[in-house]
């Protein structure tokens, strides 16, 4: 797939390396070196994807993403040297579709761009698709519980310790799948399958993004989760009761 990709990177060597690998993939690449130029180039169009460094002069990448999301659904792949969870979450909350932490492999950059372009080229799912797929005589789904966490599929409600929790459709679906079988470990690939048709842009980071956001909402201490647990090297599970260890 040949696409028009804007690379916003203030480091000339990094920018040239990204341009070289993306052009080898067959893309048309425009390189800019500050945030304001990135925003102007994205607005000028027609761009298919923006590779956006966070730390840039004039206007940083977070501000660019914030401004762009107010007016466009252009896919954004964010590049960041910040590895703290809060920094990554901030970029994703502002509307970035995926992220790479520096230093990164140029081949991984190309693969991420390819995945975003492939997902972005798919049409939006039809609203009638989900109900039509359900058995016509299916019984109403029961309220799911895992310790002090409840998920009500019928009312699309989540509570944690009796407190209502607001979830996006993707977050709710992920939590529903985990809550249906507390204690069971799901791989990322298995969880991704349940998100097709709900999240428009599905990437290798989609599950991790939802998990980070859910932990902020359902965990007493998000940095020390006791409910939504990581099983290293495999995936995630929801603890059966209030106790657990990450």
Structural class determined from secondary elements:
alpha/beta
Order of helices and strands: EHEHEHEHEHHEEEEHEHHEE
User: What is the helix fraction of residues, given as a range?
Assistant: 25-40%
Low confidence ranges? 121-138
Number of strands: 12
- Total of DSSP H or I helical runs spanning 4+ residues: 9
Strand content: 15-25%
Distance between the termini: 40 Å
Largest sheet: 5 strands, parallel
Q: Whole-number radius of gyration?
A: 20 Å
User: Taking all residues together, what is the mean pLDDT?
Assistant: 81
What does this structure look like?
By secondary structure, the protein is an alpha/beta fold. It has 9 helices and 12 strands. The chain has helices spanning 12-24, 35-44, 61-69, 85-93, 106-120, 129-133, 169-180, 188-195, 206-218, and strands at 4-8, 28-32, 49-53, 76-80, 98-101, 144-146, 149-152, 157-160, 163-165, 186-187, 228-231, 235-238. The strands form 3 sheets. A 5-stranded parallel β-sheet has the order 2-1-3-4-5, sandwiched between helices. The N and C termini lie far apart (40 Å). The model is unreliable at 121-138 (pLDDT under 50).
Give short descriptive properties of this protein:
alpha/beta, five-stranded parallel beta sheet, four-stranded antiparallel beta sheet, 38% helix
Question: Care to give the gist of this entry?
Answer:
This protein is an alpha/beta fold and 246 residues long.
SSE map:
Blueprint (H helix, E strand, L loop, with lengths): L3 E5 L3 H13 L3 E5 L2 H10 L4 E5 L7 H9 L6 E5 L4 H9 L4 E4 L4 H15 L8 H5 L10 E3 L2 E4 L4 E4 L2 E3 L3 H12 L5 E2 H8 L10 H13 L9 E4 L3 E4 L8
Parallel strand pairs: 1-2, 1-3, 3-4, 4-5
Antiparallel strand pairs: 6-7, 7-8, 8-9, 10-12, 11-12
